[in-house]
Structure formats: C-alpha cells, structure tokens
Fold this sequence. Notes:
Layout: E1 4-9, E2 21-26, E3 33-42, H1 45-51, E4 68-76, E5 88-92, E6 101-105, E7 109-111, H2 118-121, H3 125-138, E8 146-149, H4 155-166, E9 170-175, H5 181-187, E10 191-194, H6 200-208, E11 213-218, H7 222-231, E12 232-240, H8 255-263, H9 270-276, E13 279-282, H10 286-289, H11 292-303, E14 312-317, H12 321-328, E15 336-340
Parallel strand pairs: 8-9, 8-11, 9-10, 11-12, 12-13, 14-15
Antiparallel strand pairs: 1-2, 3-4, 3-6, 3-15, 4-5, 5-7
Amino acid sequence: MTSISRKVYRINPGSMKSLKITEESLDGPAKGEVRVAIKAIGLNFADVFSVWKLYSAIPKGAFIPGLEYAGEVESVGEGVTSLKPGDRVMGICRFGAYSSHLNIDARYLINLPADWSYEEGASYLVQSLTAYYALMDLGGLKENKTVLVHSAAGGVGTYANRIAKKMGAYTIGTVGSASKVDYCKKEGYDEVIVRDNKNFGPQLENVLGDRPLDLILECIGGPVLKAGYVSLAEQGRMVVYGSAYYASDRDKPRFIDLFLKYKRRPMIDPQQMIQFNKGILGFNLIYLYERVELMHQLLGELSTLNLDKPTVGEVFTFENLPDALRLFRTGKTIGKVVVAI
C-alpha cells in the first residue's frame, strides 16, 4: 500500500523542550491494521511523565508520545472487515498518538458516536476505562459505598463520579483550586474538598464525619496518599493510578527534587494491612491495552450506563502541543485538554 508523509513529535525523552514537529514517511497499514488520519489527540498525565522520561513503560530511544486520539479511517490493511475508509473512530495506542497519521491494529479502534466531535472522541477511552476498571473491577464498588476521587474535575475524575453515582455511591471529590468546585457540584459530587496537601487528613475527616470511607481513587501521592489510607474504613480499598505529587512546572524536572520526594514518600507496611483490614491496588491502563478482549468487555459494560459525553476543556492546535502539555501539567484545567489537527 502507498506510503505517505506525516507530521509527528518524535523525541528522545528528558525535557519538554525536545518536543519538535518533524516529518517522516509512513508505510501503508499491514495485515489487520488501519491507517487513521488523526483529527484530535487527548492529553494524559502519562504523557508528561513520558516526555520527562519518568514513565517506565516508554520504549527505549526516540519515540512518539501519546495514548489516545480520534480521527478518520483513510485505508485498511488485508483482513480488516470491521472498518472502512471514511469511518470516524476513536482509539488508544501504546504511544504514537502525537502524529497526523497512525497505523494501528484495528482491534484498538472504536466507532465514534454520530453526535460526538473528534475532540470528544479523544477524551473518552482512557478516562472512562481507567475510572470504570478502578471502581468496579479493582475497587469492588457497591451501592451506598463512599468513594473519594482526587483530581475530581479532570477527565478520569469526571467519569469516576458519573459511574459511581450510577452505582448509587456517595462521592467526595478533591480539587486543587476553588475555581473547580462549581464544576464538580454540577457534575453531581456530594462533597468537594479544595485540597490542602499538607493538612488533607483533617479536611477529609471533617467531611466524612461518621461515614466510613470505602474506596479511594488515588492519583496524587505523597502525604495525600498517606492521609487517605489512614482514613480508609475496614475492608476499604485504595486504587493508585497516578502520582501528580511528582509533577512540576518545569520543562525538565529537577531530579534532586524528585529524589527528595521519593525518599519522603509514604511507607506503608503490608503486614499492617492485615491488622487494619484494608488494601492498596495499583493500576496502569497498559494492562488493559495488552488484554484487548477485556478492554472491549469493559467498554460494553460502560455503554450500558448511558453516560454523558466527555467534558472537553482547553483545545490547542497541533503546532502548540507543547504549550498544551505545559498548561495540563499545572493541574489548572477542567475536563480534558485536547490537541486538534
């Protein structure tokens, strides 16, 4: 099949300043693959850590970051019957989305709902799958349970609350700025905490009162993680899927700062979990990427919940993608930050 020229951000990770657009050739899709003209790219915190070379899952050497996107099918490889040129799709990949075109295994593409924009399509899969798997499969969420969700105004936080409310749970969201409280209230959170990382324990206890804390979706780390763990009720679970505590506003992180935070990270004795009857689980979305049948099963379960469209916040051009990441890493955004091509 004919090769094309595409624009990409291929980097040697370490600094955000290395994000530069280059052009390269892309061969036609192989057997079982589809070529997608990408129209929108969804940003995730894993992107920031990938660019900084702090994400263990990144490939060795130069690579193209990016985990989720939406676009239009341009051509299909041998054996692909589920999609055809012109189809509007959304998808995930194990890196490679920071590009104008992508060849991807057809199993990782989902038809975009007719009334969704490309920007909305690039805001759904990572967020909804992370929230659903963390809450249901790992967290064992049941009716009337109390759930604490950090970064409540973000993409995962938004879907975590929507899913939890569908299950009849009581939801407490935390945000880093008072400007996000109204959004969380409109989304249906029962309580919203403007998080004070140094004094989060008392904040949480004040909101909980006599209510047991059954499940935490943890993406902050540091003292916030420890305070949440202490507050968990018996048989409570914490699902850790991120570590925003290690983020900074620099293009290249100060490794001495990271080292000191790492040295001061919470130390939780697993033997004491027996005494306290509580537990911690870790989760990386690549786990689902490598189990595509499970991923589709979860998407089917999600579809039965009839959740609202994703919330798209800031939208940047492809040429301004580095600026989008710089804004995203500040934690000052609401909903999903998207790059449109």
